[in-house]
Amino acid sequence: MNISISIEDGVPIYRQIANQIRYMVASGLLQSGEEISPVRTLALQLKVTPNTVMRAYRELESAGILRKRQGAGTYVSEVNSPIANWERNRIIEQRINDLLAEGHQLNFSSEELLAVFKRRQSAIAEAKSSKKLKTGT
Amino acid sequence: MTENLVEVEGLSRSFGEKLALDNLNFEAKPGHVYGLVGTNGAGKTTLIKHLLGLYRSNSGSVRIFGLDPAKKPALVLGRIGYLSEDRELPDWMSIEELMRFSQAYHPNWDNAYANELLDTFNLDVSKKIKDLSKGMRAQAGLIAAVAHRPDLLILDEPSSGLDVVVREDILNTIIRTVSDDGRTVIFSSHLLEEVERMSDYITIIHAGRKQLEGSVEELRESFRHSSIKFSEQLDMAPILSDTLSVEGHGRFWQTIHSGSVEKLSESVRRLNGEVLDSRNATLQEIFLAGVNRDRSKLEAA
Fold first, then answer.
1. B25-31: long-range contacts at Cβ-Cβ below 8 A with a sequence spacing of 24 or more?
2. How much is the average pLDDT of A39-67?
3. pTM
């Protein structure tokens, strides 16, 4: 699994792992029923104590996102489309909260923020279409 | 309740006039990784040598597997794997002889595991220990320490002076010891990022005393790094509640503090300032703030 952790980040390592797996499930990168890396494999990959990975998996199990099969690894829960949906909302809400807080710090009004949002949206759309034109397909 | 594998109570030890350990307590439960952190000469190695029964305590007690290692060295050492800071190994032996020698001492020696590690580390077993590079020496010492699958693995500064490749070998071996066998690891290091990633519990030792201890999350969550802005320039560091350190200049200051942001904000407001930003402190910030505070106390005395 493509997980990266940062020590500088104030977020505990187990939560960084759990958050990234949540994200992968919500975005469909990890599919329901799919087996995820064993604790040992992920611990070796990230160079963290296995107990940290175990803790992240336990947290996701109790949230219903992962399911452990006795002696046969850990899997993404099969019935998780509502969870995935809920997670999608939760993730984007968190990002918007951060954006609003930062906007407030920089003295942006809601109207100004919305205007910037739309301006960026069309700029990105434009950049994408001109790229398509350039590659000429 | 799980029984403690290691129990150190009120351990004190001096060498001549110098007090190396001062009333130190330390515990380790099975299946976890314990990181010991401290500056050079803080007492980490002295503590480890007590765990191994190489030193006898002046006062206090040391129990490993419920036994006193200084009194029952054979029973205790048979279940411990140890890699010393200076990697003391018999120089005249070849790696192959070192393996056979270690095997003779440990009935549980796992030859397949030893061979697998020799292979992974790409070590030439016919080479003499005295001809090994620093990294190879650490690798050979590590195999001798873990191949009998000890209940307790003690590594004193395992990464010190090694390149990233060998450091990775060492970290991988620690992870495997815990995840394959559920065994306990105690390691000391001054590489704080490594300690933070690899430890379940951290003990910070400073000048022979335990300065802080807790799980990595506990430590990080109990200290915050906050940035403060004052309305006017300050000529000297402001006095705020529960701070470990305050640094800065003019209107802008940073502090490592225990207690909540709210509480800090309160004491900052009284000095006409505001908290700009606050996050959990890193282990390195906590460690440095603690050491520097002690240093300035000494200077003041």
1. B25/B210, B26/B203, B26/B210, B28/B4, B28/B152, B28/B184, B28/B186, B28/B201, B29/B2, B29/B4, B29/B5, B29/B184, B30/B2, B30/B3, B30/B5, B30/B151, B30/B182, B30/B183, B30/B184, B31/A51, B31/B178, B31/B182, B31/B183, B31/B184
2. 93
3. 0.83
A47–B221: do the CB atoms touch at under 8 Å?
no
The string of pLDDT tens digits covering residues A113-129 is 999 999 999 999 888 88
pLDDT of B33 > 80? The answer is yes
The answer to whether the CB atoms of A40 and B198 lie below 8 A apart is no
Are the Cβ atoms of A7 and B196 closer than 8 angstroms?
yes
Q: Is A99 on the interface with B (CB under 8 A)?
A: no
Residue pLDDT, tens place only, B138-181: 999 999 999 999 999 999 999 888 899 999 999 999 999 888 87
User: Which CATH superfamily is B6-207 part of?
Assistant: P-loop containing nucleotide triphosphate hydrolases (3.40.50.300)
- Distance, in Å, from the CA atom of B6 to the CA atom of B12, rounded to the nearest integer, reads 16
What are the start and end residues of each CATH 3.40.50.300 domain in chain B? 6-207
Whether residue A28 lies within 8 A of chain B, CB to CB, comes out as: no
Tell me the chain A residues in contact with residue B282 when contact means C-beta distances shorter than 8 Å. Answer: 7-8
A 37-56 → B contacts, CB under 8 A: 39-40, 43-44, 46-52
A14 chain-B contacts, CB cut-off 8 A: 217
Query: B32, A14: Cβ pair inside 8 Å?
Result: no
